[in-house]
Amino acid sequence: MDPPFWHQRWQRNETGWHQQEINAHLQDFWPQLRQPAGGRVLVPLCGKSRDLLWLRAQGHAVLGVEISPIAVREFFAENELNPTVVRQGYFERCEADGLTVLCGDFFALDAATVHDVTGVYDRASLIALPPEMRRRYAHHLAQVLPGQAAILLVTMEYDQHEMAGPPFAVHEDEVRQLYEPRYHVTRLFEKDIFAENPRFRERGLSALREKVYRLTPDES
User: How confident is the model at residue 3 (pLDDT cuts 50, 70, 90)?
Assistant: First the structure.
């Protein structure tokens, strides 16, 4: 699950996690984060997700982080955007029309870069990582984020013995272990999505649930 793994997935076009449509959970539950008008939103491991466009359309400045140059190039090209490209520390910074994508390793992200972030959208980050990297990811995210930034998190639950990730199974007890007590973890939604996802049945799963959480910083 190191950088070469993700580079190879994009080079081989093995990107089954990519969605052409805007994520329904983002549209349904983003308002519950009560983001300020014009607030900056961080989208870790963003790939070439069109969700970035939806967040921008809501008036947010959007900051994505993506390790694959292929994904970054395709995002701007497919959406007919001509970014300015500059070097920013460990990252290549690509920016156009209020959309910024930092191409590089998420773990090189520092607090100064995200000092004005008010919210985080995580649909495909936590579930993209194996257990040890999930702990590292959650710790790093909490370390660099400003104290007021809330998180909208989407996860999947299934029997990990039935299928190797990614996407990995991340159960609710693990979400709470990773983020509490720094965040109040509120489950907003859960649904059995097995029937809607035949490709997972083909990979050996017998059950599949999806959950959505709001993570609110504990200001006590």
Answer: low
φ/ψ (deg, to 5) at 156:
-125, 145
103 DSSP 8-state letter:
E
Predicted TM-score (pTM) above 0.90 = yes
What is the reported pLDDT for 12?
63
Task: With both helix axes pointing from N to C terminus, report the angle between 172-179 and 131-144 in degrees, rounded to the nearest 10.
Answer: 40
Spatial CA neighbour of 150 closest among 181, 119, 188: 119
Please give the pLDDT value at position 199: 87
Q: Which domain holds residue 53?
A: 3-13+24-217
In angstroms, how far is CA 179 from the centroid of its own chain? 15
Q: What is the CATH number of the domain that holds 200?
A: 3.40.50.150
Instruction: Tell me, yes or no, whether 19 lies in a domain.
Output: no
| Owner of token pair 């097995």 | 194
- The set of long-range contacts for 30-34, using a CB threshold of 8 Å and a minimum separation of 24, is 30/55, 30/58, 30/121, 30/152, 32/152, 32/188, 32/214, 33/119, 33/150, 33/151, 33/152, 33/214, 34/150
Compute the mean pLDDT over every residue in the chain, rounded to the nearest whole number: 92
